[in-house]
Write a structure and sequence with these properties.
The complex is a heterodimer of chains A (about 575) and B (about 625). Chain A has about 575 residues and is α+β, with helices and mostly antiparallel strands. Chain A is built from 14 helices and 28 strands. Helix content of chain A is about 35%, strand content about 30%. Among the domains of chain B are: about 50 residues, no CATH class; about 140 residues, no CATH class; about 100 residues, no CATH class; about 120 residues, no CATH class. The chains are: A alpha+beta (about 575), B mainly alpha (about 625). Strand 22 of chain A pairs antiparallel with strand 1 of chain B, so a sheet runs across the interface.
Chain lengths: ~575, ~625
Amino acid sequence: MNTKSISIGIDLGTTNSLIACFDEGETKIIPNALGNYLTPSVVSVLDNGEFIVGEAARERLITNPEKTAALFKRSMGTSRKISLNNQFFSSQELSALVLKSLKEDAESYLGMPVTDAVISVPAYFNDHQRRATIEAGHIAGLTVERLISEPTAAALAYGLHTREEELKFLIFDLGGGTFDVSVIDLFDNLLEVRAVSGDNFLGGENFDQLIVQAFLSENCLETGSLSTQEQAHIIKQARNLKMALSVSVSAEMTCRIGDKDYQLRLTQSQFESLCEALLEKLRIPLKQALADAKIRTQDLDELILVGGSTKMPMIRSFAGRIFRKYPLCSINPDEVVVTGAAIAAAMKDRNETLKENIMTDVCPFTLGIETAHRHGRILESDIYFPIIERNTTIPCSKVERFGTLTDNQTDIRCAVYQGESRKASENILIGEMEVHVKGAPAGQEVVDIRFTYDINGILEVEITIVSTNVTTRQVFLSNGNTMTEEEVDDCLKKLAALKIHPRENAVYRHLIEKGERIYQESLGDRRQYISRVLSDFYAVLEKQDLNETERFATKLSKMLDEWDQGGELE
Amino acid sequence: MSKSGIIVKNNRNPWAILAIDPTDDARAIRKAYNKAVHMHHPEEDPDGFMMVREAYEKILKLLEHSIRVPSGNDIPVTVFPSASADESDIAPYFQEAYALYHSFWDRIQKSKWKQLFLSMNFEFYDMFKANAGLFFNECYHLPTDVWRYLNEKFYLPDSKRFIRQSAYQNQLDFTFRIFTPDITWDYEKYIELRYQGACAQAEKQYNKALTYFQEAMAIYDGEWALQQRIDHILYELQRLEEAADMFGIRIGEKMDPEVSRLLLLIKEQAQADGYQLLNDQNPNDENETRNLLYLCLYDMLLLYRDFFQRIDKSCWKYLIVNLPLTVREELEILAPYIFNICCYLPRSVWALVASEFSLEQKPAFLKRWILHSYARLDFSLFHPDMNWDFEHYVELWHDGMEAYEQKEYEKALPSLQAAYKIYSSDRKLAEALAETYLATGNISAAKKCHIDGFHASELTRKKSSLFEMKSIIFEKEAKAGRIALLYEKCYTCLTQKEYRNLFRLSLAFWFRTKGAAMAQIFLLQSLFMQQKYRLLHYALFFCHTAKHDNFMGALLYAQMEQAEADAPFPFMVTERQLFQIRKMKSDLLTCGGLILIAVSALIALVYVLLYFLGFL
């Protein structure tokens, strides 16, 4: 380890991603090429085959939805392929592109190569999703030794932030696509995560969807009859409406479909009653986390809101009412997680300033094996037997003893599952092991199965045959659904072959894409004007005169901002 | 494999691992644990950490099981309170619900209950859920929708009260609607009496019901549903005189001139159709059915008179459900007449009465029904504390809209204007009025009205800009009308060879159209014919600088040159030429440059020709 190593933390979000470093006792969030901290997790292919990431790609979500991918974090760890201009990508690959762009930002900011990083994942990401995230880092050229749960990262950021010595607090993290809850107990320098819980499919996007649904039903439209561009436009307008409702009592959205204007008007209270079912859903993980942590609501000292969606007043008052606490959000909710991730990276690297601070995390889900019972003649199989319960502090190691089921059974199969369902098959299969014992009457041959879950979230299963004292070990590093080395290599090759749009041009690219989007959204004279200005801009770019380009870009960006503001008001 | 046996686990003394003496002081234990964790860092010494953690958990478990050890101020981790607590224990958990129930105005709103349970603390909620039956046995005067919600949420039917309540609830539902937030009399008692009475009536214990109702009446006598109920009971009891008295009191006290007017109208219409409805004599007639019919009709009109009851569907539902069966048939015959006059109703009420009285089958009525049920006045914009004349407004609105939808704008205008004068924040009205203004040609008024309407309803800029465009088009059309007139005049001058006049008119034409090609032609033609060549030169210069149609100018220039040299040739503009010129104009816009080049070449040619001519 060199003396001046800088620890990097990355928040790979559903809608936005951030990167931060821990240096000389404090975290710094690294701006991207455009000077913004938030880099949208959007990837797009340009007409010339180049790939762009970030704001410029987000603009293309409206203008070229079929060549642009977003929200791919939601399909992380699944085999779903996302089509981008007739090429197919897995979410790992797309995430890798985002990570790569973040990495480049950091390298140009720090002036040194970046190789290691801690990436944050939602607490409720299962093993497959976690592995997929590590692979994405690998493809992007990052060694990801550690993943950190997003709420844990938020806890770290707050835990170091607070001056209190003893504090029990709950972190309510409602992001774009996921909802995470964690209950944290801070005592002296020990930050103990007591419980985490969450919902992988509940976030700001769901609120947008509700508005879109309301819009469609209000105007008697059907999704099937709309083009992808129109749908994207409606979703964008719905998001604007949601944001407008954060600051005013009522707001309105207008979408032009075909040559007709459609409208939806919502007041805050209407929106609230629209979202009742979602709020009801939010209660479930909250309740579970508190019950698992064995902390009563009145014992909580603080309530901390994290994630962009907690900017909604409805969510604030909802959380505040449940816990009878005024919610805290002293760190920008968008930046909390990445700050925590950077601190976690520094802790892992044993940074001097953080030496006194220790954090213990929990295992977010139950791990167990498949067993069977015999009641007389009836054999009940497919029963899940939990070995490590969810919200157990890690690292941990638990052992249970199991026996053979039938006479002269020689093979013992041990199927490892993750999940909460009583039926083993309804949980997620992580892997299988098999050991051989000598034939004996049922139940006489026994094995001890030990699960060891280490701090990096790696599960080691150890089966000891008691009679012979023979131990078989297996580390569940890879399984059916994750990539082999070769596949990773293939991915690396594939990505290396992709042309990535040069970083220096990101600013100009963004301006062009923004202009294209505004062009699509406006009409008449303004449209002609934008078109002319954009072609002028292209011409200036062709000339490659730096000064002139820069001058033109500043002018253009000001103009676009003005128009965009006008557009937003509509 | 199956679970078998227990492994004898590491049995080291947990207190020794944490290096403290056995204690029940949770803080001391926690401190010791912290210290131990710092010695066995989870990153560096996972095994050591696991051992410490195991010991710590063991101790916590010990503490949990040692029941109520007297300790400092820290309570060991507690389990949730069990659901089998007795009533005194659960009182605090009901506190919030009680508070809501006792605030009457909030209690009858479903949304308040929803909010309460959505934001209830988890432990409180569990306790409440387990004991909800207890609570609602006590607090049960609630409207139907609240009951339905609670039942869904807590599954209440085991509560006896609930069963009874649900049977009579919709009668009370109506009662709840008469309450306003600033109520001063004893509403709790009133509801209780009202409820008991309704139960008794449903069990056909009329005398008992009557006493309850009368007691309730003594508390508050403003609910017409209650009066109606007493009336009906008196009829049932054959105490006709009292019933008539009661009715007399109601009429005597509240005989509304408006109601009698409506009654008269209905009667007239029915009679005109040959239906002998009511005698004009005293309602205390010997004919009971007639009296009862009269009574029901009166109730209906009374309901209609009260604006806020009128627009409330549940009031109508209540009324209709409680109509005595004996007069039902006759009312059904009468219904079209009633609703022809009492027609300013929201859509929901229309749908209700239409289905209840099978109005769709009565063709005479159909037109009105369709019109009114589709006009869609937003009744939700009315609320009881409005101080403008909404009743009049509604009438005007409907009348105006009716004409407007049939595109009889002239007819619609006065009604809409009047309605707009009363209340100007209704978007739909503003829109309709603006459109009507446009259609009748009053553009500035339309614009103003539209802008007002949009300001009031905070409509989007986009939409108003759309409107702006529309009005510009309208303006243009109006202008076009004037221009057309000018053109016509010019044309006549041209044909009659009044060139001086033509010059004047074409100049006006030219300015108005900002240099339209036709105007130029007229202008130049007039000058040309008057042989004012010097002026023509200037005019041509202007035509050249005016952006449009250099081509035409050039053409004329060429002609002029020709005329200077030659005798003037007649240059008449025909319709066909006009069309061609227009077409040329549009062509010109697309390939103007090309044509210009061609034309200038032509001019050059002419010059060359002239030069040669001169030379010769």
